[in-house]
Design a protein that fits this description.
heterodimer, A: mainly alpha, globular, B: alpha+beta, SH3 type barrels, four-stranded mixed β-sheet
Chain lengths: ~400, ~130
């Protein structure tokens, strides 16, 4: 019974934890402009994150070594350091976006200006990172994030023309008013949002926090292979309600309020409140995960003691990184930069940084000395290699497309 | 306790040691193998005599401007000569697998200059710093 409970809890937190500010904003924006014609990208992204999260989970269960340990060991100190700069820059950008997202959720709930909430949210995030137990952070926000199921309920309540939705999704039929470069730009943004590198840093470091071993592999796989696809389904329903409600009236999402608007249309105030709870849980949980990931990656590069499994004073440098990044994130937001704009940058730069994370994982998952009997099989290697090609193409195309389409505005 | 010379890793095993995580006897993280110290035996074989760790050892491997800045900054802040980087004798090693495990505690190898500084100046002063996570 205890095992079943642990398994169910893991799957639930994986569903709730899958969605963050990047998924919320990008899916709603894409739904409101392209309908479901880009839903296939979410599918591709979810399969990709499943392949590599399972791989990194297997590596950490078999070797005890999380992702950035592997990056340093496989790529050496010089390339590893460049990788650290790139990965941390993208994760910091995501951290800023998540904290901004929490502030936006508070603004929607209270009507009080978002920037008023920023210092308060930053302090709250830091206190949680400083004091809360690791599994508490993971479970509470993951389970509360399930409130986002309200988007699926809203879709059902709106009783859309299912045949037409399926048609646009299955034929990738782009609205004629949109141009192809923007279509591909948002394809890359969605892909970056689904495969954000911090997810793998956090997932694999969590394996050390929770001391996974070979015995944990079935649980790890259940979380990944059941939880992430269901999380992906939540992402698609966010896009679908936007496609049903916002696309026909020509509203293009550029605020968090507009992301929730279709739920309010379908389910009224109650639905809206649940959606706001989901926004808060998803962004707050992801803020904790990205914040921790910053400390994890730098600690793992330099070999410092890191993690929530020791007393804070035994991992002083790790906690210094958490403290400084939180202050920096709040400072950036207080320049009154728009968190939605930061989010759009963070998902595209995530796409650019993807090869940095995923190549070393694929390399080490094939190392029999590390992996003993659990090295990559043929399926994992075939999928891993195919995805590495997709990741490389997306990474190289991201910046040119961003410039060409002026961030998708043309 | 020192390991017999015959059992010490040879140079061809070097790539397996460099950049690997070092853990102490409680499983706490000590640092990385940023470099190794080698000694030539009478029969011409090179054996590893110590692991070098910390910015003083990492800097030279980064090469270029980054490397020299790293070493100079570390040397200035720690008040040690640039070539006097932290050394963990091979005798302290108890086993090697996906990490290097030491048979001694983290405090006895004295690698934690910056960690100690951050702890005493800042982290230890915050409420709950010594609270056991479990």
């Amino acid at each position: 019974m205890k095992r079943v409970f642990a398994l169910a809890l893991g799957v639930l937190t994986a569903i709730g934890g899958f969605v963050d500010i990047g998924d919320l904003v990008t899916n709603a924006l894409v739904g409101s402009r392209f309908g479901l014609s880009l839903a296939w990208v979410v599918l591709v992204g979810v399969v990709g994150i499943c392949v590599f999260a399972e791989m990194s989970g297997r590596v950490v269960a078999m070797s005890g070594r999380p992702t950035f340990d592997i990056v340093r060991e496989r790529l050496g100190p010089r390339v590893g350091l460049l990788n650290l700069f790139g990965s941390m820059a993208v994760t910091l950008l995501t951290y800023i976006a998540e904290i901004g997202g929490v502030a936006l959720a508070f603004e929607l709930a209270t009507g009080v200006w978002e920037y008023f909430w920023v210092p308060f949210v930053a302090i709250l995030v830091w206190v949680v990172l400083w004091r809360a137990k690791f599994d508490l952070i993971e479970n509470v926000f993951g389970v509360l994030g399930l409130a986002l199921v309200v988007f699926a309920v809203a879709l059902w309540q709106l009783s859309p023309d299912w045949g037409q939705l399926w048609h646009t999704a299955s034929t990738a039929a782009k609205p004629t008013s949109e141009a192809w470069p923007s279509y591909w730009y948002y394809a890359i943004a969605l892909f970056g949002a689904a495969m954000t590198p911090y997810e793998v840093f956090f997932f694999s470091s969590g394996g050390v926090e929770e001391s996974w071993s070979e015995k944990s592999l079935p649980t790890v796989r259940a979380n990944v292979f059941v939880g992430f696809p269901l999380g992906g389904l939540l992402s698609v329903s966010i896009a679908a309600v936007a496609a049903v409600v916002l696309l026909p009236v020509g509203i293009q999402v550029d605020t968090l309020g507009q992301v929730a608007m279709p739920v309010a249309v379908a389910l009224g105030k109650v639905g809206l409140s649940i959606a706001l709870l989901g926004f808060f849980a998803a962004t707050f949980g992801a803020a904790c995960e990205t914040g921790l990931s910053l400390g994890y990656s730098i600690g793992q590069y330099f070999g410092w003691q890191w993690g929530k499994f020791v007393r804070p004073k035994e991992a002083a440098r790790f906690h210094l990184v958490l403290l400084l990044s939180t202050i920096l994130a709040a400072a950036v937001l207080l320049t009154t930069v728009d968190p939605i704009l930061v989010t759009e940058f963070s998902v595209v730069f995530s796409a650019i940084a993807l090869p940095l994370t995923y190549l070393p994982i694929l390399m080490v998952a094939n190392d029999r000395q590390f992996m003993r009997t659990h090295a990559n099989g043929r399926v994992a290697n075939t999928l891993g290699s195919i995805y590495l090609v997709i990741i490389l193409v997306a990474s190289l195309a991201a910046l040119p497309l961003m410039v060409w389409t002026k961030m998708g505005t043309t | 306790m020192s390991t017999p010379a015959s059992r010490r890793p040879e140079l061809d095993a070097l790539h397996q040691l460099l950049d690997r995580q070092i853990l102490d006897n409680d499983g706490l993280m000590v640092g990385k193998v940023d470099d190794v110290e080698l000694e030539e035996r009478e029969d011409g074989r090179l054996v590893v005599t110590a692991f070098l760790t910390g910015p003083g050892a990492l800097g030279p491997r980064l090469a270029g401007a980054w490397g020299s800045i790293t070493v100079r900054t570390w040397s200035r802040l720690s008040g040690r000569a640039p070539e006097d980087c932290t050394r963990i004798g091979y005798g302290a090693v108890s086993s090697i697998n996906t990490a290097i495990h030491l048979g001694v505690s983290r405090s006895s190898v004295a690698v934690d200059g910056f960690e100690t500084w951050v702890r005493t100046r800042l982290i230890a002063a915050l409420p709950g710093a010594g609270k056991d996570p479990s």
